[in-house]
Every structure is written in C-alpha cells, then in structure tokens.
Design a protein that fits this description.
single chain; disordered C terminus; alpha/beta; eight-stranded mixed β-sheet; globular; Rossmann fold
Length: 272
Amino acid sequence: MRQLTFILAAIFLASGMALAANAPKSISFGLKGKYDGFFAPGQGQALPGIVMIHEWWGLNSNIQREAKEYAARGYNVLAVDLFGMTTSDPTHAMTMVKDLDQKSATDELLSAAQYLRTLPNSNGKVGSLGWCFGGGQSLNLAINDSKLNAAVIYYGQPVTDPAQLSKIKGAILGLYGEEDKSIPLAKVHEFDAALTDAGVEHEIHTYPGAGHAFANPTNSAAYKPEAAKDANARAIAFLAEHLKATRSGELTTLPSSPPAGGEHVADEVGTF
C-alpha cells in the first residue's frame, strides 16, 4: 500500500512539474537577458513560434491572453514588451510610441524570433503577429529578419517602398478596415501593389464598413463582429499554413474558436 501511495505521489509530482513547465510566465531573453516578455509555451514537440507584438498600450493582460490562446493552438508564443510599461491613456500611449527607440525595438524583435527558433521543442519556423502599432512592428520584423516565415498585420501602418519590402522572405497577411481613418484604403492598395512589385508572397483583405480596431471586442464603437470573425479565422489559417505545414503539406488540427483581438481605441488612435 505504501509503495502504491509512493508511486501515485510520484506521478502527481511529475504531472505538476510538467504543468508548471508549460505555464505562461514572464521571462528575460536576448543577450544576457536584456529584454523582457511574456512567454506562453505550447505543449508537444516540433512546435512553431510566434512573436506577438502589443499595441501602443503596451504588454497588457489582453495581449497575454492572446498569447495563451495561440499557445493552446500549438505554438510557442513570446509576447515582447517594447515599452516596459502599460497605459490606458491615449496621450501617454502616443508618448510611448514617439519615445520608442526603433533600432532597439527591432533588435528586441529579432532576439525574440531567435529565442523561439532555438527552443528545444521548436520546429525552426517562426512568425509574427501584431495589432495596430504591433501590426506595423510585425511588418518591421518581416523586413529585418530574412528567416521569418510569416507575418500577420492587423491594421498596422504599411510600407510602400518595394525596395524595402523586397527584403521580406516570408509571407505577409494584411487585415484592414476600409473605413480606417488612420490608414486610408488607397494606402492599403498601394501596400498591396508594392508587395506584388517586390515579389513578396502576400494576402491583403479589407472589410467594408470596418474602421480601425475592428477586431477588438472590447471597443463597442469600433468592433465589427463579422469582420473580426473572418479576419481572425484567416490569421489562424495563414499561420498554420506557413508555420505548421508538414512535409506532406498537411496542417495540424486547430481549434475552431478565433482569437479575441487585442485592446484598442477607435479611429482617434491616429497612425499607431
């Protein structure tokens, strides 16, 4: 009886240690732990990674929730912290964006992607995903990291210079609202054409009647449920296609529920 109790205790202890190992947590990464982020590990082997990038509010609880949801879909997710603080005040958020050292931010994004590639259970593939300010940073990472396999851009500022875009080696998914006051539809079309001229594999989807932050369910003024549902489903399928494809081309099974979207304000956010 004592032996059985010991065996059961050992099993429970091992299970607890496994759960703890797979628990989301704040981490430091990069050279000598220079950068901080929120890491949500997936369970299993040969998993792809996602660099998740917050909006101008910073790495808040909504982004951490998104990281955990994507981890549950079979990804190692590292949500970077580009500001070192969070806010709910648009004026403060604007200041944080204006004060950002872009070179340092790019270095942090590159370090995050490399961290994910070198994890013991990595399949070597890494993508990026960001909303608004983070969407622009997702594109920035794609331009600067020739190893990045895919980038999802939720209404992030486009780059329309084909010479810059030609540095991208992975695939791009852009999701934009046609009524976005921060990013006019003409600019989105220009982005689409520039990606084509640069020879970049890409998909650009626009949503009639949707403005900035249309995928944010916490913003009743901006949220467009049908557009958000479609955009989120496209993001899930796109990342699975480019990060989870097996040698036979088949995809791993994904849950049907889409991510909820990050926290945003309405079109008053400007260009961030």
